[in-house]
What we know:
Blueprint: H1 7-10, E1 33-35, H2 37-43, E2 46-51, H3 61-74, E3 79-83, H4 87-99, E4 102-108, H5 114-122, E5 126-130, H6 134-147, E6 151-152, H7 158-164, H8 166-175, E7 181-185, H9 190-204, E8 213-219, H10 224-227, H11 249-258, E9 262-266, H12 268-282, H13 288-302, E10 311-316, H14 345-351
Parallel strand pairs: 2-10, 3-4, 3-6, 4-5, 7-8, 7-10, 8-9
Antiparallel strand pairs: 1-2
Bound molecules: ligand F0G.
Cofactor: pyridoxal 5'-phosphate
Function: Catalyzes the gamma-elimination of phosphate from L-phosphohomoserine and the beta-addition of water to produce L-threonine.
Pathway: Amino-acid biosynthesis; L-threonine biosynthesis; L-threonine from L-aspartate: step 5/5
Amino acid sequence: SRQWRGVLHEYADRLNITAATPIITLGEGGTPLIPAPALSARTGAKVWVKFEGMNPTGSFKDRGMTMAISKAVEHGAKAVICASTGNTSASAAAYATHAGITAAVLVPEGKIAMGKLSQAIAHDAELLQVQGNFDDCLDIARELAANYPVHLVNSVNPDRIEGQKTAAFEVVEVLQDAPDFHIVPVGNAGNYTAYFRGYSEELERGATTKLPRMFGFQAAGSAPIVVGHVVKHPETIASAIRIGNPASWSLAIDAREKSDGYFGAISDAHILEAHRILSAEVGIFVEPASAISVAGLLERAEAGMIPAGSTVVLTVTGHGLKDPQWALRAADGSDIKPTIVPVDVPEIAGVLGLSKAT
Ligand code: F0G
């Protein structure tokens, strides 16, 4: 057995890297594809969960960031910049620090989860809270990168999508084919685009017999692709995907057409319900944006759109520990307060409903 070496080493033959590319890696990728019997029972499909929270900074962004930072360093960059709803900033900060360069990150003020804010600061990023939303941050980052000596590492940088496509390679390695459906959360639609590219390349080289139907889900208050126009003031509790003007919009439309795919919108209430189902029935803890994959599956299955026995892969994009507060909320919105007990075995046994073995 050997240690997983990160996606650039593992897939060197399928990425645009050369002997001149310094490989900046924290060992990203190689994440588990986990069977989810509870979701299979609910839907009649064979459901697998690709748990991207298992990456070094706790989200799928690390696959793209190893590529983007490696290429930036190859091209002599001393500083990178990104706009972020949190995960990209955490990842950029970690990989830039590892490479010995500077990361500047622009986040919407007061709108990113505490875990992600902590990561960017811990990894020594230059973090600025912008008095605007994510779309404003991205506009500023693009303008700065166009006019100042700083390299953009948002997913408008094609190296990001390249790195992220490796997740599809891993799914195919496990299933020995593409799934019938692949479901992802959608914000900028970079990851939707990346999976489509990964699967297309697998089909082209004969590793699969088909493309999966690519299903993407946006939060109902932030669903520009579903409603067909920019959303000026996007809202959702799923802060990671609170995006009104997706950067990879047209690439995603193309991917939907070519894969007979679908984009749908999910209410915050259904996102939180799916979050509870994934935590309490499957044993996988994710941030709210990731739970939208589960909510999307349940919605499509309910609508009769997932034939029985289909193989479905759900990508869950970020770890629950980044934004844990949602687990402490009951379905009715009230706070969950763990029971307090004294240091007393019989009393604790009583509270747990245990009676002494005889
Ligand atoms: N899930 C999580 C946890 C995310 O952080 C993001 C995007 C997405 C899904 C959507 O992916 O943008 O490729 O469609 N987060 C970005 C960020 C915007 O700044 O961390 P997408």
